[in-house]
């Protein structure tokens, strides 16, 4: 049993046993899938309603991954620091990078579970997709990018906001606000020009649009996010945010005073 | 052989010198208590040994190695309750076993032994938030008892424990002492420090005295102490009592004062009369042997722990 496995096991158990985490990451997006699928689709023509529900389900899956990375991960980091566990870990023969990998793998596993549950509820509510096998594979890659970018933001929050409550609420706040202004929670076409540009730069909304484009179609994504430039931008900024988070965490959380 | 060797250890935070050229040698198998008030530098010293903080200057050796190279020999138990409350006791220990690189099968065996050693076998599958403060602290000490760990550093382990939990906890430490683990106990409680084979008194980043507990008391020159419990505590009462005390200083306790005088038989009735004269009733007066807190007070004119 290696260090990474030990950290992964502990972190995922903590994710699954905390009601706040389960609420924001699973219950809240599911609630929105239920509300949006029935309340906001009343005037939608019947031939497209299932695809609208599909795009709603994808957005809520993205939101679940956002809260997992931006709130659960920093909350977990802040909690470990606040109760002295990080001091204890620093006194042990542990490589900080293994700690990081363990935490991120736990986040990815938990995010996969949350996204599956949200997607399943969406499907039960009538969400339908138009996809190819390659499209599904590409979507998984974009979901992974979305999750890693959220983890990067989460690690930055967890590193610099020391208190558990502050870290969780900051993460939830950033997730909710950015989801609202970047088009994760609203159609891209309804955003003003400035926010449309933000939506293309913000790696989470551009990844979300890419998945919507691949699984539902361009009409629902609002633009083509799979151009070479846009895809490169999504991958580059996601990677940049993740690397920034990794560096901040390993440098500052594991720094000796 | 020295398990711990510190030479001229210094730690500064800006202009604030928290540790001032501390020299300390702790032999293998020794139980050493470092006792001092809040802010004296004792926790900083422990965390430097545990590689959590880095020193500003000086030499540190753990079995002849630098602390970073000797992490596998040290079991550090910080002051905070670091165990995860939503995991069970067993899950917490399995987590630490994994961090130390044990296979699942081997970890199961070791964790089971550790749980039995700390008396938590029956509560192993309960989540830690159901544990009492004492149970949780014992669980956390168990994280520092995995095979191969030779030095146990305990930072204020009994703080916040009720008397029964504290006794049980100290019993565990006594058992470990028999197994020749080197123990460094950081404390501000004299009764805890008295269990050690050697005690160092630390104040303002300097070790001001160091010896076996009985020898420390003997060399302090203190013979008897009058413990006076009073209905009220005030400056006036302290002033009256200080007239009977050496250097005219009394130590404030949660329920009264401790008076240091050479002839207790002569002083006791006078103390009662003097308190009566100012309208303060002594609820209890008894003669006691000096404690390590008294020795610390004699040396520094400061209390080791704040009076609540």
SSE blueprint and pairings:
The complex is a heterodimer of chains A (257) and B (308).
Chain A: H1 3-17, H2 19-39, H3 46-82, H4 85-90, H5 96-124, H6 133-160, H7 164-182, H8 193-201, H9 203-215, H10 218-221, H11 228-253
Helix pairs in contact in A: 1-5, 2-3, 2-5, 3-5, 3-6, 3-7, 3-9, 5-6, 6-7, 6-9, 6-11, 9-11
Chain B: E1 2-13, E2 16-27, E3 31-35, H1 42-49, E4 57-62, E5 74-77, H2 89-99, H3 104-117, H4 133-142, E6 151-155, H5 163-178, E7 182-187, H6 190-193, E8 198-203, E9 206-211, H7 213-220, E10 225-230, H8 235-242, E11 250-253, E12 256-260, H9 264-277, E13 282-288, H10 292-300
Parallel strand pairs in B: 3-7, 3-8, 5-6, 6-7
Antiparallel strand pairs in B: 1-2, 1-4, 8-9, 10-12, 10-13, 11-12
Helix pairs in contact in B: 2-3, 4-5, 7-10
* Topology order of chain B in helix (H) and strand (E) letters: EEEHEEHHHEHEHEEHEHEEHEH
Low-confidence stretches of chain B: none
Largest sheet of chain A: none
* Major beta-sheet overview of chain B: 6 strands, mixed
Multimeric state of these chains? heterodimer
Distance between the termini of chain A: 31 Å
Topology order of chain A in helix (H) and strand (E) letters: HHHHHHHHHHH
Question: How many helices of chain B does DSSP assign?
Answer: 10
User: What's the number of domains of chain A?
Assistant: 1
How much of the sequence lies in strands of chain B comes to: 25-35%
| CATH uppermost class of the largest domain in chain B | Alpha Beta
Span between N and C termini of chain B? 42 Å
Question: In angstroms, what is the radius of gyration of chain B?
Answer: 22 Å
Strand order of the largest sheet of chain B: 5-6-7-3-8-9
Mean pLDDT of chain B: 91
CATH superfamily of the largest domain in chain B: P-loop containing nucleotide triphosphate hydrolases
| CATH level-3 fold name of the largest domain in chain B | Rossmann fold
β-strand number of chain A:
0
Question: What's the count of strands of chain B?
Answer: 13
């Amino acid at each position: 049993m290696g260090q990474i496995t030990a950290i992964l096991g502990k972190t995922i158990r903590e994710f699954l046993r905390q009601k706040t985490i389960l609420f924001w990451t699973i219950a809240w997006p599911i609630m929105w899938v239920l509300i949006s699928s029935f309340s906001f689709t009343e005037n939608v023509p019947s031939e497209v309603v299932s695809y609208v529900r599909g795009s709603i389900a994808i957005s809520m899956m993205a939101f679940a991954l956002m809260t997992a990375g931006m709130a659960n991960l920093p909350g977990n980091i802040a909690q470990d620091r606040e109760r002295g566990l990080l001091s204890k870990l620093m006194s042990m023969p542990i490589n900080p990078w293994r700690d990081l990998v363990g935490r991120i793998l736990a986040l990815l596993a938990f995010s996969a579970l949350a996204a599956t549950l949200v997607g399943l509820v969406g499907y039960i509510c009538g969400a339908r997709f138009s996809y190819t096998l390659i499209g599904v594979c590409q979507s998984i890659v974009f979901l992974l990018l979305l999750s890693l970018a959220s983890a990067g933001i989460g690690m930055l929050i967890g590193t610099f906001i020391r208190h558990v409550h502050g870290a969780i609420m900051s993460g939830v706040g950033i997730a909710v606000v950015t989801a609202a202004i970047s088009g994760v929670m609203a159609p891209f076409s309804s955003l003003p020009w400035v926010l449309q540009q933000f939506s293309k730069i913000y790696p989470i909304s551009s990844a979300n649009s890419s998945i919507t484009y691949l699984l539902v179609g361009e009409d629902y994504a609002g633009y083509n996010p799979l151009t070479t430039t846009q895809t490169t931008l999504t991958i580059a900024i996601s990677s940049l945010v993740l690397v920034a988070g990794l560096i901040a965490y390993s440098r500052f959380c594991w720094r000796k005073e | 052989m020295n398990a711990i060797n510190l030479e001229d250890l210094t730690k500064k935070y800006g202009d604030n010198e928290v540790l001032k050229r501390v020299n300390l040698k702790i032999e293998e198998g020794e139980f050493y208590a470092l006792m001092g008030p809040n802010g004296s530098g004792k926790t900083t010293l422990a965390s430097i040994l545990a590689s959590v903080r880095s020193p500003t200057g000086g030499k540190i050796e753990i079995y002849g190695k630098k602390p970073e190279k000797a992490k596998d020999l040290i079991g550090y138990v910080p002051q905070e309750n670091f165990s995860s409350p939503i995991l069970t006791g067993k899950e917490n220990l399995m987590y630490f076993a994994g961090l130390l690189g044990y296979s699942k099968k081997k970890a199961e065996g070791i964790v089971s032994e550790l749980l039995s050693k700390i008396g938590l076998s029956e509560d192993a599958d309960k989540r830690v938030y159901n544990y009492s403060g004492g149970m949780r602290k014992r669980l956390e000490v168990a994280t520092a008892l995995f095979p191969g760990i030779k030095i146990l550093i305990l930072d204020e382990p009994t703080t916040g424990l009720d008397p029964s939990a504290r006794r049980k906890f100290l019993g565990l430490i006594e058992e470990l002492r028999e197994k020749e683990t080197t123990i460094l106990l950081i404390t501000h409680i004299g009764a805890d420090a008295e269990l050690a084979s050697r005690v160092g008194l630390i104040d303002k980043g300097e070790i001001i005295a160091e010896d076996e507990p009985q020898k420390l008391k003997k060399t302090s020159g203190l013979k008897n102490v009058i413990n006076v419990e009073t209905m009220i505590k005030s400056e006036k009462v302290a002033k009256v009592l200080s007239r009977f005390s050496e250097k005219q200083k009394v130590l404030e306790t949660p329920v009264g004062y401790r008076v240091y005088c050479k002839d207790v038989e002569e002083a006791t009735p006078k103390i009662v009369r003097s308190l009566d004269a100012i309208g303060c009733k002594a609820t209890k007066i008894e003669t006691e042997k000096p404690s390590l807190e008294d020795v610390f007070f004699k040396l520094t004119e400061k209390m080791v722990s704040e009076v609540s």
